[in-house]
């Protein structure tokens, strides 16, 4: 016992010494790089004149104000986007969640279709599409849409009624000479963010609400029915209050994600905190201080929001609702007769059917019947449907971007290798080390093909890598290389030794508390400052490192959940066989934990594919940036819908395939466990 204690103390001391030496080395590099760039560290610049304008501000601001006030404007804008998006996502998400458990099969099907489509398309793709739609499709302010009293929609944004607290009355917007005046004004950028974040987050909240409702024992509904309560009353007074206990914990995570996702405002030109800090860094060179401000603000906001919701969750839990261990709710098979069983249900069904039919016909008409299938941009302008010649002329730009045209066969071969590896992942017989070897071979071969420089293949620098191959390589390498780090972090977080546990907890919570856009900014700006002067790290490596660290933090939590689900009796059985704690962990506990963590790890992989779209913020030409590049030609610029639809379809196919793999794995694990 004394020998084991001595070893643990020595191991912790070595870990502390390693961390201290690494920190001292990084700080020394930082001081040398700052001196070489003639940059003085410190926050004294906050009192300097900002010298730049901010397009939207809830408080008085001008370019002559201080940098501190500019940061305050950015913070208020971030909070405004977050609050509006959380409110919108909650309303839409709860409605969709209720629709997902409805007895009406048509309503369930439509809500599921929405959830599957929205969740499998990256948020940034949706935001850029909505922004382009707002600017190019919505009418000018002189012809603003006026669908409801007090509501005006134009390419400048949306105007809504607002409440004037000074006069204690509602103020309605009204058409002015050059703009809509009065009321609550949301610019096109703010409208895009609020609508996009609300739609995206609502899809996840809908599944959370569905899961919470299905966790309530069916006997509660049966008891309410016996008391004479109608279905609506049962849901409102009996089922939903109990479901809140299961809904709130994951809902909190998505509220925090919404706050972090608001950092994507920089992609559509809205002056949030990250956008303002980026401008300040470009003007002052105070990169470290700017990044520290972003980190501190997001961590503080997320911590306060988490504490607030957790207190409410604790109050809900103390009410002692019925146990959720009952059987899952099952929807009876539906027929057309059951959809028309009552007047109310018949009206809902016919309304939904009419809406779905209209939407489907309109989509088919635009996609096929009125579409231009051949010709040029001029032919497309004369038609009212989709312009498919745009895809024919620009698909190589979208798929391969700036990769040398004569060498694009190598990029296509890279796509083929990665696609083959994904297809083989469905083959259950090679699961395990053989599948890991398949992915390693596919990635190494893809990197070799993309770079070249051997035999007769010309060398292509990473600055030229772009398009879909870059997206898939970044995502695949991030998942593969983050996995071993995630295992170490998960084990370290559950360690009984305080030093490794606190180091792992600090790293994981730091990475989960900062938006990925902020992590990518750190990679782009801070990595060169902390690296030695003789070492030059290109943008691909910097971004890849950021994605690996970010992914490892989330994968570690999935693995930690698997470790917690392994019965403690497994350690006791291993000890009875003569295995020590390390051997029991490696040979007994960890394999079981990883099997249980596979669905969560696959879901993290889906998120990583979608997260790669954010690299355009730091100037990398992934497939989304290549899509935007295809719209540079003035002749093809009006056909942005076709461009983003093509890219969204690519992402949907990839993410949907991975999600089906997750379900396939989960089904196999459940069958194995039942045996």
Features:
two-stranded antiparallel sheet, 3 domains, MetI-like fold, 675 residues, mainly alpha, 8 strands, 4-stranded antiparallel β-sheet
Describe the structure.
- The structure is a single chain.
- This protein has helices at 2-36, 67-100, 105-119, 123-136, 188-214, 218-226, 231-261, 273-284, 287-317, 336-339, 343-369, 377-382, 389-400, 408-424, 433-451, 467-493, 498-513, 516-530, 539-565, 569-576, 581-611, 623-630, 640-674; strands at 145-148, 151-154, 157-160, 162-164, 169-171, 174-175, 180-181, 184-187.
- The strands form 3 sheets. A 4-stranded antiparallel beta sheet has the order 1-2-3-8. Strands 4-5 form a two-stranded antiparallel sheet.
- Helix content is 68%, strand content 4%.
- Helix 13 crosses helix 22 and helix 21 (581-611) runs antiparallel to helix 23 (640-674).
- The two termini are 40 Å apart.
- A hairpin with a 4-residue loop joins strand 4 (162-164) and strand 5 (169-171).
- The chain has 3 domains: 2-38; 70-322, MetI-like fold (Orthogonal Bundle), CATH 1.10.3720; 377-674, MetI-like (MetI-like fold), CATH 1.10.3720.10.
- The protein is globular and about 80 Å long.
- It has 675 residues and is mostly helical.
- The protein is built from 23 helices and 8 strands.
The second-level CATH architecture of the largest domain is: Orthogonal Bundle
By DSSP, the count of extended strands is: 8
What is the CATH topology of the largest domain?
MetI-like fold
What Rg, in angstroms, do the CA atoms define?
27 Å
Helical amount among residues, as a percent range?
55-70%
């Amino acid at each position: 016992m004394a020998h084991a204690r001595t070893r643990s103390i020595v191991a912790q001391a070595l870990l502390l010494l390693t961390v201290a030496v690494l920190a001292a080395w990084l700080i020394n590099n930082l001081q040398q790089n700052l001196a070489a760039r003639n940059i003085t560290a410190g926050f004294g610049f906050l009192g300097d004149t900002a010298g730049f304008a901010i397009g939207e501000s809830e408080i008085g601001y001008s370019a002559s104000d201080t940098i501190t006030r500019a940061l305050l404007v950015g913070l208020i804008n971030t909070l405004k986007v977050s609050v509006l998006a959380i409110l919108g996502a909650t309303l839409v998400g709860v409605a969709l969640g209720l629709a997902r458990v409805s007895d009406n099969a048509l309503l369930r099907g439509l809500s599921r279709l929405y959830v599957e489509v929205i969740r499998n398309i990256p948020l940034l793709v949706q935001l850029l599409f909505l922004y382009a739609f707002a600017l190019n499709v919505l009418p000018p302010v002189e012809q603003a849409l006026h669908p409801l009293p007090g509501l005006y929609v134009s390419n400048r944004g949306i105007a809504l009624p607002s409440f004037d607290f000074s006069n204690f009355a509602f103020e309605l917007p009204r058409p002015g000479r050059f703009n809509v005046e009065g009321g609550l004004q949301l610019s096109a950028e703010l409208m895009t963010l609020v609508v996009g974040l609300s739609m995206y987050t609502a899809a996840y909240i809908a599944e959370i609400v569905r899961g919470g409702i299905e966790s309530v024992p069916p006997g509660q509904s049966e008891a309410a029915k016996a008391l004479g309560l109608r279905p609506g009353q049962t849901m409102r007074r009996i089922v939903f209050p109990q479901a809140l206990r299961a809904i709130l914990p994951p809902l909190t995570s998505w509220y925090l994600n919404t706050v972090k996702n608001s950092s994507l405002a920089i992609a559509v030109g809205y002056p949030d905190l990250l956008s303002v800090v980026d401008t300040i860094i470009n003007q002052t060179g105070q990169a470290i201080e700017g990044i520290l401000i972003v980190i501190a603000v997001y961590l503080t906001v997320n911590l306060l929001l988490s504490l607030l919701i957790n207190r409410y969750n604790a109050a809900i839990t103390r009410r002692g609702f019925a146990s959720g261990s009952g059987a899952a709710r099952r929807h009876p098979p539906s027929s057309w007769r059951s959809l028309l069983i009552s007047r109310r249900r018949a009206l809902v069904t016919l309304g939904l059917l009419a809406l779905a039919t209209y939407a489907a016909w309109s989509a088919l008409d635009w996609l096929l019947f009125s579409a231009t299938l051949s010709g040029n941009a001029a032919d497309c302008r004369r038609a009212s449907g989709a312009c498919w010649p745009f895809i024919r002329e620009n698909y190589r730009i979208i798929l391969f971007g700036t990769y040398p045209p004569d060498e694009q066969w190598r990029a296509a071969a890279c796509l083929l290798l990665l696609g083959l590896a994904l297809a083989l992942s469905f083959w259950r017989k090679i699961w395990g080390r053989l599948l890991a070897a398949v992915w390693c071979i596919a990635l190494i071969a893809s990197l070799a093909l993309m770079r070249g420089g051997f035999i007769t293949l010309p060398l292509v620098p990473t600055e030229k890598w772009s398009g879909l191959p870059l997206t898939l390589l970044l995502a695949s390498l991030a998942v593969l290389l983050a996995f071993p780090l995630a295992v170490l972090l998960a084990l370290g977080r559950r360690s009984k030794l305080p030093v490794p546990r606190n180091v792992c907890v600090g790293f994981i919570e730091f990475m989960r508390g900062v938006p990925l856009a902020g992590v990518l900014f750190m990679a782009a700006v801070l990595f060169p400052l902390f690296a030695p002067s003789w070492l030059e790290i290109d943008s691909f490596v910097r971004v890849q490192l950021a994605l690996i660290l970010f992914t490892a933090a989330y994968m570690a939590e999935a693995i930690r959940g698997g470790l917690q689900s392994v019965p403690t009796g497994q350690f006791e059985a291993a000890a009875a066989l003569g295995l020590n704690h390390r051997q029991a962990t490696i040979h007994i506990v960890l394999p079981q934990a990883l099997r249980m963590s596979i669905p969560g790890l696959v879901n993290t992989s889906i998120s990583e594919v979608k997260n790669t779209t954010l690299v355009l913020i730091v100037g990398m030409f992934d497939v989304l940036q290549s899509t935007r590049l295809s719209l540079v030609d003035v002749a093809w610029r009006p056909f942005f819908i076709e461009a983003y639809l093509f890219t969204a379809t690519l992402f949907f196919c990839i993410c949907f395939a991975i999600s089906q793999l997750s379900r396939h794995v989960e089904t196999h694990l459940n069958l194995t466990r039942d045996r």
